[in-house]
From TrEMBL:
GO terms for molecular function: transmembrane transporter activity. One of its GO terms (cellular component) is plasma membrane. The lineage of its organism: Bacteria, Bacillati, Bacillota, Bacilli, Bacillales. Belongs to the binding-protein-dependent transport system permease family. FecCD subfamily. This is Iron ABC transporter. The keyword Transmembrane helix applies. It is a multi-pass membrane protein. Gene3D superfamilies: ABC transporter involved in vitamin B12 uptake, BtuC. The chain crosses the membrane at residues 12-32, 60-80, 92-112, 118-138, 150-169, 194-213, 234-265, 277-295, 307-326.
Amino acid sequence: MISTNPFRIGGIAAGLLLVLVLIWASIIFGLTDVSSRMVIDSIYRFDQSNEHIIIRDSRIPRAFIAAAVGASLAVAGTIMQGLTKNPLASPSIFGINAGASFFVVLGISFFGVASLNAFTWLAFTGAALAAAVVYICGSMGRDGLTPIRLTLAGAAVAALFSSLTQGMLTLDERALDQVLFWLAGSIEGRDLELLLAVLPYLAAGLLFALLMGRQMNVLAMGEDLATGLGQRTVFVKLFGAVIVVLLAGGSVAVAGPIGFVGIIIPHIARWLVGIDYRWVIPYSAILGALLLLAADIGARYIIMPAEVPVGVMTAAIGAPFFVWIARRGINE
């Protein structure tokens, strides 16, 4: 564990440098090999060659989308785990990704939605609805809101929205062709315009999350103590929910429902820097970007010349981790 602030700052600097290295690697490595010189030339001396087109239209957007989505999903999972005190909480497990995906597919299937802004707002709406349903269902009963109730409610809501999505796709082959690869969680073929459409929301969510670190620390001491210290816990939870919707909804709009990033990364960040959310949140953002960048690079080589959706890669990495966390017990 990194226990002193100078080392934590150094860790952030090293992490950011490694993110830049992996972004550069993501641009260079793939089915079409390109050199560093080609990347520089494509930016400053674009000649419309096949390599330059691949770099500018595919590789560069893909690398930055992977970094942005990975950071956003990791921070969303960190906020969710902190608010619910549930180590299994994440946008995928609690049905938020599934809700966002359902609304996007609904818009494509029944309303012919094709614009990027519409995708974004549909994803936000679905994410917010799923979060509200999970919270309401998890709060029902005599014992009120508990980690196990939240987990069960999240699993039920995720299954419901996933089933509805699959049902719509069986009735509309056109929508199936459009979104099948996207539903697996993929950043292949995404252009920079799509990232720019949601970047303000992702940036706002990340910034608000960084500013919320102190409030998360107070809330972690217990709701009664936090209230006694003057914290408006209801406001903190609602603000945290808005952050999760911004980050998870924006990520789904860009890359589809990529799972397990929000589960894995918060635990690694807490293992590295402890339980202080002023450090856990920025470390989660950096580690999330690193994970998705590395997973996307690896996805290009598994079945080359074809590619594995990056969501499949994160699931392969995250499923054993999820089982390990579950076996430890969510009430620890």
